[in-house]
Amino acid sequence: MVPWPAKWKERWAFVQDFVAADLHEVYRHGVRAGLADPSTARLLGRRDGVHAGLVQLRMLFPENEQQVRAASARELVDASRAWSALGEAQRKQREAAEATAWKWWAVCLTAAAAGFTVLAAWGQVVGSTVLAAMALICLVLRQRETQVWADLRQCFRAGWLALGVLALRCQFGLLAALWGQELRRHAIKPVIVKVVRSMLGEDPDSLLITDNYDGLRSPRGRGYVVDSAPTLLLRRKLSQIDAGTVAVCGPRGAGKTTLLETCVQEADFGLLAQAPATYAPHDFVLSLSVELCETYVEAKGYDLPEFARLSNIRRFLRRVWGWCKRRLHWSAFALPAAACLVLGGAAAARLLRDYYEPPVRDYFGTLGGSLMAWAELTWRGQAAGTSVSLLIVGALWWRLRTASWLLGFLRQSALALSALAGVALCLVSLATLLADKGAVQRLGALSSATVLRLCFYAVLCFVLSQAASTGQRLPAGGLQTAVKTAFRWASRSMAVLLVVFVLRNPETQAVLADPENPLRIAAVLTGLLLLKASNWKPRPAEPALVTRCRNHLYRLQTIQSSSAALTTGASQIGSLGTAHTTSVSTIPPNFPELVGDFRELLSQIAAEYRKEGGRVVIAIDEVDRLGSETQALAFLGEIKAVLGVPHVHYLISVAEDVGAAFVRRGLPHRDVTDSSLDDVVYVQPSTLQESRTILARRAPDLSDPYIMLAHALSGGIPRDLLRYGRRIMETRDKTASDELADISRGLVLQELAETLAGFRTLLSKKQWSPDTYRVLDAFRNLVAHLRSACPCTEFEVHYALEQFAIDSANDLGQTPHADLTEEARHIIDEASGYAYFSLTLLDIFSADGFDRRLQAAAERGPNGDPELLAEARQELGLSPYSARPLISAIREAWLLPLQPASGTGTIPPPRSRPCSQHQQVL
After folding, report:
1. Residue 572 within a domain
2. How far apart are alpha carbons 356 and 101 in whole angstroms?
3. Global pTM?
4. Residue finishing a domain among 182, 201, 220
């Protein structure tokens, strides 16, 4: 079934409200429309007892109806007044109808039909006479006060009041429909959402009800990027300096690459380069130079050079084939058009030749004779003034060889003369048509039917073409395209019909058969060609900077060689001579030369954009991929030579340790960051409010508890935030549940199982003894519990996680008899700290009454702020020892236990058999 467009639904609802008999029916229409709204309909059926029938019943409660009526009081008052007036008019009309023994509607209809029949059959004069006679009869009956007149008067009075009732009914219907429109748009939706949320019970926002999360599916989509605090800070820094190098540092996944891409796109000329994974400054500067040239050539609208990869013959054949294809396409239209023009204009050309050739030949013959006589007199020296003038003109003409304005002046003069000649030819052709009495008479002899048909075809063709060009505002894109295509073909068909009608109609044929029409059409075509020629502009020459970039690309990406040979000989039988061969090839530029060419070329590009008030940004990303801080600083030291170009902003993405080295410059010593970087912008992890903004753009319907969960798991890192947003949707599909408790439990346990499996892989690379096997055994048992988790084993999984996170893992890592290395002990502490954090998330998000507990935790102090969960996740990346006290403080604010309720301190093995009731593994 094809869904109705929203506009049609609104109009149909307006009609229903207009037809409705009372305001209660209009209110019920509004309730049904509110239940059909997508934002409300998706809440229905999510929990037991929440369905449309029960919600509609609750909306009829007096308190809810009163809230809706109060939100639309102005429209309701107007509709109520109209309803009262309608009721009073209906009462009076019923009293008038009851005062007569006749059927008032039959009498009124008979009188009206008789009057219209008389007027239509006998005209206004006879009709007026008959109506006057009827009025006289009624007057006589009134004077005698008969019962007939009394009944007749009451019938007419009832009919007149019925007309008033009809007008008031239309007024009430319109006001009721306006009230219903206000209900659907503003008044009823907040109340119905409030009722549905109250029926959902505790934590209505814990339901995951969202279908629009396309932004989570495309993490690199530029349309979902939001401005963050680092973005605004970097814009301010770039606006405050004319040129310089700004480092962008922060943890991985914090959005450094997105920030650089945004700045490059906002710049007038921008370039984003990726730093090499291995330390190779020469190759990096070489690729940066190539990318700079290619970006500039494409920005100016020119094609990049195609380096030859085929043989000379194949390249020649390909060029010839392309030239032939273009010429064949051009000839397929040019030759038939030229043949038609030549054949149609041949008679006009001969007429012009016969008429103008004798006087033109005589004029130029006379002019040529005069010039020859003048030149002969000058050559003999009999015209001294003319000789002096010619000498001056020759000298001046030689001086004009260096005048740059001369060619432009001549070209502009020729174009102006071409435009004037074109306009003159068109006007002269029109004037000859108006001055031709025969043509005017033939145009005037056109019948009205022919003129109407011509106008009809022309107007219809124009309307259809406009409709095809502007399009129709339809709800579906495919339907809109189909309608525009239909209008386009209809306009073309109508144009063809217009031409066929003009050619086949005898009256228009007589107009077209005027003997002077070919000459007029030829003059108009010539004028149009001259007008088109006046708009001709020479193709601009390729800018020198584009040519230089193109040559630089050849220099960097090709090895050019040239050879020359010279052979001399004496005779064909016995030769005596010499042979000389010379070969020249280019040498690839070394690093200093490459840097110098790059700086010079970039300086010219920046100066060009500087004149136009533009900004040039060169962004270098992924410098932190080089490895250690030492390698990154060495890389900056090598490419330092390409930095510091005037009017160029460099943005370099570096690791946090490089940014820290810049901040502590001079303490205790200086490094390469002092002379390479001008400023640093830190991209910090997002706050909870910033995470809300990011997810609101990518998943608008995602409720706040799920945003808090994704923010806590990601630690505010945008890349991980989007990943956990997708994992939430994936877990919903796995658990087939919309509840926060089920989704959070499945997500946290799955994430913890994968993380602990990674820790166990790291521990497997260490040395173990019979006294330390309990560590790996604890990891294996806990991972097995997590992988086989289901609602039936909830208590067992929680117990095992408590033992590992709070008690057992610490005992295993700190037992004096355990022969553990410091590295293995640190891995165990990291795993225990992450399990402690996961246990806290599990206790917070998987228990009932999340909103109530969230408010209570916030009232107990700052440790109850959900922002601290993300800070604890960030702290785990630094040290598990500093993260554990922070997690314990959070648990105290949420009234969660700090010690296991009971147990032996060991993790029991999981069930040997899978659960028969829940086969799906989280």
Report:
1. no
2. 100
3. 0.71
4. 201
